[in-house]
Design brief:
This protein is α+β, with helices and mostly antiparallel strands. The protein has 15 helices and 16 strands. The strands form three sheets. Strands 1-5-6-11-10-9-7-8 form an eight-stranded mixed beta sheet, sandwiched between helices. Strands 13-12-14-15-16 form a five-stranded mixed beta sheet, sandwiched between helices. A three-stranded antiparallel beta sheet has the order 2-4-3. Helix 5 packs parallel to helix 9. The longest helix is centred in the first third of the chain and has 21 residues. The structure holds histidyl-adenosine monophosphate (HAM).
């Protein structure tokens, strides 16, 4: 082997990609029902976008970006997430000029130079949605309902929705100071990362996994205690909407998320069945980001979910997706003349919408049946022998093992009718 695939990346083989297609189709249909339309942005952007959009104190910007200079000497970065790009596209394409809100979704690869482990990759895939222009708590609740409905349709169990509010530019500085004041006496006992975060981004200390840091957080003021009246009312209204549609949640006052742009609602959906990387979905509101990226002040709210983690979760819970069989009809042929007829027949059936296959490897009839069996084809047509001279073919129902002689020139239509095509 000359080279292997890069660390932290995956090859998705046909047995995987059929599942991806199924789930992607489900997501597209869900978006249609919720009024979200697809946005496709470049997988690389000017580095500046992520410095401003994601925030220069975040782990993503400080440690994880695939940044390089292109042949023209510009600094570009493979997108580590899609929210900043969606905001750029919203502003650049003047999508604000149409009726609001603008409701967008995306599916595609993201790139982060992280330490690979189960459920964490350097190239991974996200499905995400962004809703621009609506400041109503109903918009926050709607995206959560969409995510929840997706997992419900897949049949996943044991999901836990965590919600919090991180406040707004009015109340967050007050909270920030209260948290710093609380932690200051024990600052030297916090881990190195938290000591660094103390000045730049103290809220991130709340979700540090280090037990010593967690110990010094006991009794710390919470973001919710510090909310201003508007933020409190917004948060309560989001919860009311969730209650109204029966979505259970846990208020997690330590949830601050790893990106800088959030205001008000922050949420994550966790699934402990898939190990340490249990966050299957994360998002929240970002009312300052559009302005930050050069647009007019515009509220926004969205989330992204990790596609690889969906498949890990399905596997962990033993959920089989109802994938269509690869082949509906196999045409087995005996002899050269019959092979030519088989070729015509599969073409005719494919034109009618069937998944039809025939032998192109010169197999014996017995080997052709074995091959057809492997694909679980519902029907086999046998071309050859006396039937061919009579202008007929044998139709075998592989489940019932029944056999029937049918006219060759009607065979494609008869099969199509069996699949209601
Ligand atoms: P995030 O929490 O960084 O948020 O990522 C969202 C989801 O992507 C995670 O919950 C996880 O399922 C998946 N994910 C993240 N990193 C990896 C990785 N290295 N390997 C596998 N899966 C991963 C965002 O990206 C925000 N843009 C979400 C958002 C949209 N907020 C508002 N709008």
């Amino acid at each position: 082997m000359l080279t292997k695939r890069p660390r932290g990346t995956n090859d998705f083989l046909p047995e995987d990609t059929v599942k991806w297609q199924y789930v992607e189709n489900m997501l597209r249909e869900l978006c249609r029902q919720f009024g979200y339309e697809e946005l496709r942005t470049p997988i690389f952007e000017e580095t500046e976008l992520f410095l401003r959009g994601v925030g220069d104190t975040t782990d993503i910007v400080q440690k994880e970006m695939y940044t390089f200079e292109d042949a023209g000497g510009r600094s570009v970065t493979l997108r580590p997430e899609n929210t900043a790009s969606a905001v750029r596209a919203y502003v650049e394409n003047k999508m604000f000029a149409g009726a609001q809100p603008t409701k967008l979704f995306y599916i595609g690869p993201m790139f982060r130079y992280e330490r690979p482990q189960a459920g964490r990759f350097r190239q991974f895939h996200q499905f995400g949605i962004e809703c621009f222009g609506a400041s109503s708590p109903a918009a926050d609740a709607e995206i959560i309902v969409l995510a929840w409905e997706f997992y419900r349709r897949l049949g996943l169990r044991n999901l836990e929705l965590n919600v919090n509010s991180v406040g707004c530019p009015e109340c967050r500085p007050v909270y920030r100071k209260a948290l710093q004041d609380f932690l200051r006496p024990n600052l030297d006992k916090l881990c190195g990362t938290c000591q660094e975060r103390f000045e730049k981004n103290p809220l991130r200390i709340l979700d540090c996994k280090n037990p010593e840091c967690q110990h010094h957080l006991v009794g710390a003021p919470t973001t919710i205690d510090a909310l201003c009246d508007d933020c409190r009312e917004h948060f309560n209204a989001v919860l009311r909407h969730l209650d109204a549609v029966g979505i259970p949640y846990k208020i997690n006052e330590k949830l601050v998320r790893g990106l800088d742009y959030y205001t008000n609602t922050a949420f994550e959906i966790l699934l402990s069945d898939i190990g340490a990387q249990s966050a299957v979905c994360g998002g929240g509101r970002y009312n300052r980001l559009v302005e930050e990226i050069g647009g007019k002040p515009t509220p926004g709210v969205g989330f992204a979910l990790g596609m690889e983690r969906v498949f890990n979760a399905l596997q962990a819970q033993g959920i089989e997706l109802p994938i269509k069989p690869k082949i509906d009809v196999f045409v087995a042929a005996l002899g050269a003349e019959a092979s030519d007829v088989a070729f015509r027949l599969v073409t005719e059936m494919r034109r009618l919408g069937l998944a039809a296959e025939h032998d192109m490897m010169g197999r014996s009839l017995k080997a052709q049946f074995k091959y057809a069996d492997k694909f679980n084809a519902a029907y086999t047509l046998v071309v050859g022998g006396d039937e061919l001279s009579r202008g007929t073919v044998q139709l075998r129902d592989m489940k019932g093992s029944e056999q029937q002689e049918i006219p060759l020139d009607k065979a494609a239509e008869i099969l199509a009718a069996k699949f209601a095509l």
